[in-house]
Amino acid sequence: MSEQNLVSVETQSEFSVTSGRRETRIFLKMYVDAVHSGFLADIGDENWRTLCVIAAFMNERGECYPTQEMIAHRLGVSRQTANRRVKRLLDYRWNGREVIRAVKERDGKGRWENARYTVLPISHLAIFNSG
Q: From the centroid of its chain, how far is CA 53?
């Protein structure tokens, strides 16, 4: 199978003439090849929705900093359910490679900071900036 994008993340900056402000929007695009390649069936409904919610907080480097409460609220589930879903997504592999990674670090006082999730630019999951 040739290299094709199955899912891509695109950023777009717009300047509003009326407000004078610049706004950057992030789009998560699914290509029909995601269906035909088996990716969408393999990732499953819950992992796909969880990936979409986390990706909605992503910056141009693929890094996301949503809190557990934010993820739960956007998924419409409890915090505990959201935590289980995030763990399943972190354990998921497409073609043997992780799709998303989480890093937790402690602040200067030893408290846990919010997890930093990174949506990874793996084979068939492309992150690009069309600026």
A: 6
